[in-house]
């Protein structure tokens, strides 16, 4: 199968990074949504295990990386969900949980202590078509099938469910003031009970992280608490956060390959109200996602790279920390697909279930089941990440 795939790539003249696998590799990776009612392109995944044991996986569903209004997609991209009631052995068909006139994207899901399920997302609004002969550098343009449309950031939002994802609320929007923001991480609950919404700002030559905090379960939200703003680092952050054992909060912020800014970390010692200077992680990474295991270790999944200077060297990666984020053991290979936006839950048997997506035409959502890497002092080659051992579902 591997040789045949390579021959087909050479014959057709197309090269897609990291899409050649053996049959065994495929069998231990389960596709949980592809095509059908969720569209030709499914991406930007997240998964949560509810208090009742159900697994809910959410993802972007549309035509491509950005979905424009069309006959097939009159409302552009939407947010879909699948459910598993048997710890990932089987999954429901995808259903749409939110759709409106905007391109709704990067959904992430979590459950608060009171049982409220929350899906965060941001969206893009589309304006009029601009003729090719007319150029206006003051407007943001999206190029699509020979057309150019004015685009506008539609803001960051969330929807809630109080019945384990069976029904969903109307949209709630975070007011972000002077900055237009995006998000790509779940809402979290802090030890003091506050809800915290991680987000980021990216515009022209400025990109940094931000969080918003609610002390009353989303009825009111604070002003933005910025991470890395003004530090001469370009961090289109896709910010995620995790509470450390000492009560501090660790934030991870996406890096930028073009500017050689690696994934960065920052610490808050006051429950997210202020943040220390960003610190270089030493490795490139996009779309970071944290989870603390029952053992106390912290798992970080992310889009990793075998060559930090080459975007085409991406893969779906994992690192693990046994010292509260001071050092990160790895890198480990989840899959050679480079879509990433991976997330993890720890199942009842202490195995890990990881969701991620493929990227490219007909992109699908996948899951694998694996064990967390044991603590080790063995150095792993940066350019040759160690494959995780896959388990049967």
Automatic annotation (TrEMBL):
**Taxon lineage:** Bacteria, Pseudomonadati, Bacteroidota, Sphingobacteriia, Sphingobacteriales
Q: Record's CDD domains?
A: Sialidase_non-viral (cd15482)
Task: Please write the reaction equations for the catalytic activity of this protein.
Answer: Hydrolysis of alpha-(2->3)-, alpha-(2->6)-, alpha-(2->8)- glycosidic linkages of terminal sialic acid residues in oligosaccharides, glycoproteins, glycolipids, colominic acid and synthetic substrates
Kindly give the SUPFAM superfamilies that the UniProt entry links to this protein.
Sialidases
Q: Name one GO cellular component term.
A: membrane
Q: Which organism is it from?
A: Sphingobacterium humi
Q: Entry's Pfam families? A: BNR_2
Which family, according to the similarity comment?
Belongs to the glycosyl hydrolase 33 family.
Q: What is this protein called?
A: exo-alpha-sialidase
Q: What Gene Ontology biological process does one annotation of this record name?
A: oligosaccharide catabolic process
- Record domain Sialidase: where: 213-334
**A GO molecular-function descriptor:** exo-alpha-sialidase activity
Q: What is its EC number?
A: 3.2.1.18
